[in-house]
Amino acid sequence: MRLLGRILESDSKTANSKMPRILPVLRLSVVLLCILLCSLSRNAIFVVAILAAELLRLASLPPRRIAGVLRRLALPVLFTLLIMLPSVFLDHPRTMLTITMKVTCSVLLLLLANEEMDWKDVTGVFRSWHIPGIFTMTLDMMMRFLVLLGRHSHAMLEAISLRTVGNVSGRQRDRARYKTAGGVLGTTFLVSQRLSQQTFEAMECRGYDGVYKGYNKHKAGWMDGVYALSIPLLITAFIYCQSLMH
Amino acid sequence: MITLDHVSYKYPDGNLALDDISLHLTAGRCYCLSGPNGCGKSTLFRILNGLSFATAGSYLLNGEEITEKKLRDKAFAASFHRSIGYIMQNTEVQLFTRSVEDEIAFGLYQMGLPEEEVTARVEKYIALLGLESLRHRAPFNLSGGEKKRTALAAILAMEPPVLIMDEPLSGLDEDGQIWVTDFIQSLKTPDRLLLIATHNKDLISTIADETIYMTKDHSLL
pTM for this one? Predict the structure, then answer.
């Protein structure tokens, strides 16, 4: 128990400290390349190899962060399994395995990148790729408002359920439900518009002019050079694995 | 520092929001703006922050007229927004980054400060507002009081000479209200102008050097 306590204590100290040892632009490029190649791959060996490498990388994280990554990974993987389940009954069980493996690999790649990179780093990479600031802002706001609007809709549904106890039954009830759902969606849309307008104004008041400014803290080192080698290696491995199919 | 000369504002649908407002606000003083709901306090703050523009009259900051055309110039807009800090009534919309630390750093990066300065200011204001234990937390998951403190830290870190707050005590419990009142009191310095919209009579009596009343017909009393 004491050992477990010490592990958790050391873990909590590092839980929030992201350690971008690799240049973010390089890390994100490799992640996107891996996802692309995994999606294109018709050979399971390539996907399994990437998955194994990512699992090794995952194992190097502190226990609490591993648990966090696995928790977030579970839902998309289970969802994919569920969606692909009919293929087993249609005599294509391998399709289910292939797709699930590809999804696992892609989501794990993104989750690990998220563990190792700050959002600031990601926006920095977008900047270096000359992606317009409005895209970054839209992405940023969308993710943020998903949470806020989810809360808002939940609160509205709770308020409606409190006001409709013991209400009408049958077809009339169904009609009322559709009307309610429409009302909630409409109000949520209007609220989202108002919130995003106010947030944009708050950003403007703090000097935002359409461009996310920041600094590139990361200086390229020898490790980045080694990591950059993984790009041609990945492409070569991909071509080799595909040639095995013929 | 701030001069409003016969400022009026009409909404696009023709409804009047501000009617012939003239004010002169100077540094080193704390002004409380009070009035019934819908009298135009928030519209006035929007004009002061360059988010809306008067349909009549003029707004001068440090002797320079602030117009829509001038604010289209990025350099001018940057220096204008550096001069005025605005804490909104609903702080939730004001917090948009992934962590409290990033929230404080956002405005500083946008100001183009050197990295060492950004880090130093982030540390300073995290310590000043007691946000050490929250620095890595996502702002939208914080409590109302914590959000208010984060918004204050984010704006104060920019060290603006003019600080505008819209209902700073709204949504706070009694302890939170006492804390914010004391904190605002500590912000009163000879070179800073504070403008606070509030209905809270205790806050007005504690901190206001001057109280400005607005009436239901959108003008000053």
Answer: 0.75
